[in-house]
Known about the structure:
Layout: H1 28-43, E1 50-54, E2 58-59, E3 71-75, E4 89-90, H2 91-94, E5 100-104, H3 115-123, E6 127-131, E7 141-147, E8 150-154, E9 159-161, E10 166-175, E11 178-186, H4 196-223
Parallel strand pairs: 2-4, 5-6
Antiparallel strand pairs: 1-3, 3-5, 6-7, 7-8, 9-10, 10-11
Amino acid sequence: MLNYNLLYCLPSSEELPDSDETPVDNQLQHLIPGLLEAILALLWANRGDWYFGVDMGIYANPNEAAIVPDGFLSLGVHRFIDEDLRLSYVLWEEKVLPRLVLEVVSQTYRGEYTKNKEDYRELGILYYIIYNPRRRRQPPLEVYQLIDDEYQLLSGNPVWLAEIGLGIGRERGTYQGITREWLYWYDENGQRFSTPEERISAAEMRAISAERRAEILAERLRLLGINPDDLS
């Protein structure tokens, strides 16, 4: 009897299309998940067991097209496979479902509240997040958790995601020079984690403050008749 591994008969991530060839029609669809990824890269810099994909295809079935959310988070996988990084996220290779998917609604409605939601439910995605910045009569941010095979809307801003160990919420801020409402990660106490730009700015301010304190000290020493250069 011939023995073979079924995985050998399936296409690999290198052979599958790495996107659905549909360009984003709103810059926010790229910037918002990109910001979340950048914050995680700082927050979890010492961890290698996570991956955040942006506009990347998720393949659940080799005979069907990929599902391409604006962003998704997987835990328990290698963040980096090799220097070429991932081309797509293939479930029969990864063997781990994404824990969270994010859709940013643009001017062109793409079934975020209907078809996509059902697709993610059938796939078994634990958290499904929809962000629609143009919504006025209903909350722009909706966070759903899969409970008993149905998506249940979670309340709050930020919303704590216990199975991930992070909260997600919306708040006004500045990213890449753009001041508007963004999505951020939060800790269990509702404190927002800093962005890379904010950390750089804070470090620069600390450096300026330290330099100014040194100048003030030097001035006081000179008033006392002490040359600060002689102390170095």
